[in-house]
């Protein structure tokens, strides 16, 4: 599925990903994975190549319950978000949301606006439930998700081991529509 591009301030805009973005997305994802422990992967793990991203973008464009958005600053991709739905009838009413932004661009509302556009799309397409997972240490993200109607559904205890050697919980959150 695609959205109409939207400009935020004069600094950046959000649009649907195209297959031409695949190489850059592969590079940006690899960089982001090395900048934060808030995500599931360490840098280089579960690497997605340009070809892999082309297939993801193609699939997300063709499926009505998938969305792949990118945020650009001066025509450079600095972050992205995905909503991935299921083809199974029993779970076709929900999508899973994920987002990441280059650390250099944190604090500009990019993640928030990727979330808002994803929510707008999900509501417009009558998705009854959006889910996400967030590490307990990412309090900024948790507060943002709560502000936009997400609630805690569960906790995966001692789910992630970070570089300090300690184990942390993953918070499962959901937002309901309709």
UniProtKB/TrEMBL annotation:
<dbReference type="InterPro" id="IPR016181">
    <property type="entry name" value="Acyl_CoA_acyltransferase"/>
</dbReference>
<feature type="domain" description="N-acetyltransferase">
    <location>
        <begin position="12"/>
        <end position="174"/>
    </location>
</feature>
<keyword id="KW-0012">Acyltransferase</keyword>
<protein>
    <submittedName>
        <fullName>GNAT family N-acetyltransferase</fullName>
        <ecNumber>2.3.1.-</ecNumber>
    </submittedName>
</protein>
<dbReference type="GO" id="GO:0016746">
    <property type="term" value="F:acyltransferase activity"/>
</dbReference>
<keyword id="KW-0808">Transferase</keyword>
<dbReference type="InterPro" id="IPR000182">
    <property type="entry name" value="GNAT_dom"/>
</dbReference>
<dbReference type="Pfam" id="PF00583">
    <property type="entry name" value="Acetyltransf_1"/>
</dbReference>
């Amino acid at each position: 599925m695609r959205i109409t591009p939207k400009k935020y301030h004069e600094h950046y805009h959000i649009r649907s990903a195209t297959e031409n973005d695949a190489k850059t997305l592969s590079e940006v994802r690899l960089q982001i994975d090395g900048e934060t422990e808030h995500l599931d992967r360490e840098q280089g793990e579960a690497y997605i190549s340009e070809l892999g991203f082309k297939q993801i973008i193609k699939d997300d464009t063709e499926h009505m319950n998938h969305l792949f958005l990118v945020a650009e600053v001066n025509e450079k991709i600095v972050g992205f978000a995905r909503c991935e739905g299921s083809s199974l009838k029993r779970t076709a009413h929900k999508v899973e949301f994920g987002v990441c932004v280059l650390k250099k661009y944190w604090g500009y509302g990019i993640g928030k606006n990727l979330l808002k556009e994803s929510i707008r799309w999900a509501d417009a397409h009558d998705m009854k439930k959006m889910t996400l997972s967030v590490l307990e240490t990412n309090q900024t993200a948790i507060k943002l998700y709560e502000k936009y109607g997400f609630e805690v559904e569960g906790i995966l205890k001692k789910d992630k081991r970070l570089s300090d050697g300690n184990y942390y919980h993953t918070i499962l959150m959901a937002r309901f529509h309709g």
